[in-house]
Specification:
This protein is α/β, with parallel strands linked by helices. It has 16 helices and 21 strands. It has two domains: 265 residues, Aldehyde Dehydrogenase, Chain A, domain 1; 184 residues, Aldehyde Dehydrogenase, Chain A, domain 2 (3-Layer(aba) Sandwich), CATH 3.40.309. The structure holds adenosine-5'-diphosphate.
Length: 490
Amino acid sequence: MSTTTTIPAPGNLIGGAWQPAISGQTFENRNPADTDDLVAHHAASDDRDLDAAFAAASEAFPAWRRTPGIARGNILYRAAEILASRVEAIARELTREEGKTLKEATGETMRAVAILRYFAGETAQPHGEHYPSASPTTMLYTLREPLGVITIITPWNFPIAIPAWKLVPALAYGNAVVIKPASDAPLCTIRLAECLVDAGLPAGVLNVVTGSASALGDRLVTDERSVAVSFTGSDATGKHIRDLAGAHGKKVQLELGGKNPAIVLADADMDHALTQVINGAMMSTGQKCTATSRAIVDRHIVAEFTERLAQKIGALTVGNGLDGATQVGPLINAKAADSVAEQVEQARGEGTELLVGGRRLDGDHARGHFVAPALFNDVSPSSRLGQDELFGPVLGVIPVDGMDEAISVANNVRYGLSASLFTRDLTRAMRFVQEIQAGIVHVNSETAGAEPQVPFGGYKGSSSYSREQGKAAREFFTQIKTVYLDPSPS
Ligand code: ADP
């Protein structure tokens, strides 16, 4: 039996009003750790709701654009404080809708607070540059101006941090937003929007539309009132959006998958490397684009390292994230859990040795979408397990002979999001930083992590060569106006 009650979700936010879908339809959202726990009903929107959202955003944009950045920043500061005061309640809801542990959910919600604070501060930073002119009387400078209405499409795996790191800079730089969160976890986007509304965000500047992408159709990406699309999600959807949005002349930003390596050299601090590699692979149940999925380990230490990895991974406590003892939560839904278990079976079928985990869990776990954290030994770098993103709690060990082979194996995938190296040797660390094809590089820390003040994004197939967060966010969410100002033409 569930010990939690269904949350009365307020519906879509359109033009400053919370409202049901025009169709009156809703869809339900259940706790992936306990499908008896009905978390909420959300508005099942269609293109009529989207039409209203784009209309509201277009109407609100001119006044928001003219609002001084400092005033926009003050709203973001207030929203940060409101969100900080609600962290405990929202983190519980995050755990119920997405499954990650309460500790992780609390950290993620605090990250959204940090994002609000950072971009509130950014609104007071210089947003242009002054240049010398060839003309003695001309003042020559640039301004950063907002783009207009932005469409934001987010995944379920960081249901408050990813919406925050897209919509907060979009708003800070003066854009209006229509956001569609993933149907598996829309509640946190709603909670973030509530904080912004309570902080005084003008009606229509931010609009939230929930529902399935298939019901909303291509309009989400093609509506002519929106000038740009920022998307985080799967490769296939990202490519579809890139092509469609590109064909409609929009600016597009994509954050896609990863196959992130952690290289462990023979001189590494083994205890530290073990903890970091396991955290990188198993936190968030491996469901993050920065998760570690390949441990590339020097042959001199691989036997001991692998044995200790297997022992520790096998001892992880899997369960409901609301339970304080849980270290690894469920997969997001039955399809995801089945897919991970199937890919594990496939790899075994191809002859790769499974040391621990990998099976759907039943018994006490039968009401949730659980897969036991898995470790594969001696993975072939060119196999599917060595190349494809699983998006689950599965780690493969790849033995290598030294640094050169490690870097070559690490780079030989289509992705390039994040990468780690564990060593005590500074020269090797410097070489790794130079040679690795990844947008985010760690030395002696796990592959995951995203502080708001620095750029986030990947090389190769992991991104669209744009970056999110920090000063880099300004590149996507603004455009440059160059001003030749001559006050005394003669
Ligand atoms: P996942 O469901 O695993 O997060 P997706 O890439 O399918 O990965 O979904 C990420 C986001 O993109 C979700 O909000 C989803 O509803 C949305 N989405 C899926 N398909 C489309 C599409 N064809 N057009 C626009 N958005 C889409």
